[in-house]
């Protein structure tokens, strides 16, 4: 199901129910005077999600060929697996945090006995991604109107993307939607280092510019007061 969160920003709800449900987001930078080459998909869901990311794009009136880029918050299958649904029509760049790109391309070797490290060692062997142009991002890099904020903990290279024109932050799995209408942290078993994740929440809340839309990878995004909700979570950790 597609939902417009504000003009130029759409939620693409991928999957029917947790834990298979995840969010992707489509941002038309042209709505914010970003100029040409500004249609960006943030995250892609799993390849077996129903509806698929391709079907959700079609519901907005776009196809994979219309995308100028894909931004990935982190290398987990429920955020990158849908890349397989975009090819061969999409042939643009895919950007993600440098440390997660090292995981994906087997330059980083997580510990076998670490629950998340074992998952990544298995997933990169068993579930290969299509041959696309992968570009690393570092903290503070900008691309297509987005600023990347390195927020490790859930994954070593987890990135939050802030878009000033859209007044939105694409938070990936740094936070999840809370039961109280605010934000909470992910389940510990799904992260590399929860202490580091909490530090990232606090650091991000102190430095990210103000934003309304809190667009997380799981759960219902907030359309107003996103930065206040992030600071409130940081204060509770």
Output the keywords.
alpha/beta; Metallo-beta-lactamase, Chain A; 14 strands; single chain
What would you report as the Rg, rounded to the nearest angstrom? Answer: 16 Å
Give the domain tally. 1
What overall geometry do the principal axes of the alpha carbons give?
A: globular
* Rounded mean pLDDT score: 93
Q: Biggest sheet, in brief?
A: 7 strands, mixed
Protein structure class: alpha/beta
Q: What is the CATH topology classification name?
A: Metallo-beta-lactamase, Chain A
N-end to C-end Cα span: 33 Å
Write the layout of secondary structure elements.
Layout (H helix, E strand, L loop, with lengths): L1 E5 L2 E6 L7 E7 L10 E4 L10 H8 L8 E3 L5 H4 L2 H4 L6 E5 H7 L10 H12 L6 E5 L4 E2 L2 E5 L8 E5 L4 E5 L3 E2 L5 E2 L9 H14 L5 E4 L9 H11 L1
Parallel strand pairs: 4-5, 5-6, 6-7, 11-14
Antiparallel strand pairs: 1-2, 2-3, 3-4, 8-9, 9-10, 10-11, 12-13
Helix pairs in contact: 6-7
Q: Would you write up a description of this structure?
A:
- The protein has helices spanning 53-60, 77-80, 83-86, 98-104, 115-126, 194-207, 226-236, and strands at residues 2-6, 9-14, 22-28, 39-42, 69-71, 93-97, 133-137, 142-143, 146-150, 159-163, 168-172, 176-177, 183-184, 213-216.
- The protein is globular.
- The protein is of the alpha/beta class and 237 residues long.
- It is 25% helix and 25% strand.
- The protein has one domain: Metallo-beta-lactamase, Chain A, CATH 3.60.15.
- It comes from Haloarcula salinisoli.
- This is MBL fold metallo-hydrolase.
- Pfam families: Lactamase_B (PF00753).
């Amino acid at each position: 199901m597609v939902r417009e969160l504000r003009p130029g920003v759409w939620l693409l709800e991928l999957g029917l129910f947790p834990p298979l449900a995840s969010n992707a987001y489509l941002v038309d930078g042209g709505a914010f005077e970003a100029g040409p080459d500004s249609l960006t998909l943030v995250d892609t869901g799993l390849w077996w999600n129903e509806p698929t990311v391709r079907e959700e794009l079609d519901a907005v009136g776009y196809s994979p060929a219309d995308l100028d880029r894909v931004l990935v918050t982190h290398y987990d299958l429920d955020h990158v697996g849908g890349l397989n649904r975009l090819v061969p029509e999409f042939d643009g760049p895919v950007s993600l945090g440098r440390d997660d790109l090292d995981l994906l391309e087997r330059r980083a070797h997580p510990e076998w006995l670490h629950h998340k490290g074992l998952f990544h060692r298995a997933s990169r062997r068993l579930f290969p991604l299509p041959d696309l142009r992968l570009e690393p991002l570092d903290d503070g890099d900008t691309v297509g109107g987005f600023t990347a904020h390195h927020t490790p903990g859930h994954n070593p290279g987890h990135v939050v993307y802030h878009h000033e024109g859209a007044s939105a932050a694409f938070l990936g799995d740094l936070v999840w939607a809370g039961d109280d209408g605010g934000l909470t942290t992910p389940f510990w078993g799904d992260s590399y280092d929860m202490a580091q994740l909490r530090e990232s929440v606090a650091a991000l809340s102190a430095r990210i510019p103000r934003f309304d839309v809190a667009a997380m990878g799981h759960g219902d995004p907030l359309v107003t007061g996103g930065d206040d909700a992030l600071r409130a979570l940081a204060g509770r950790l």
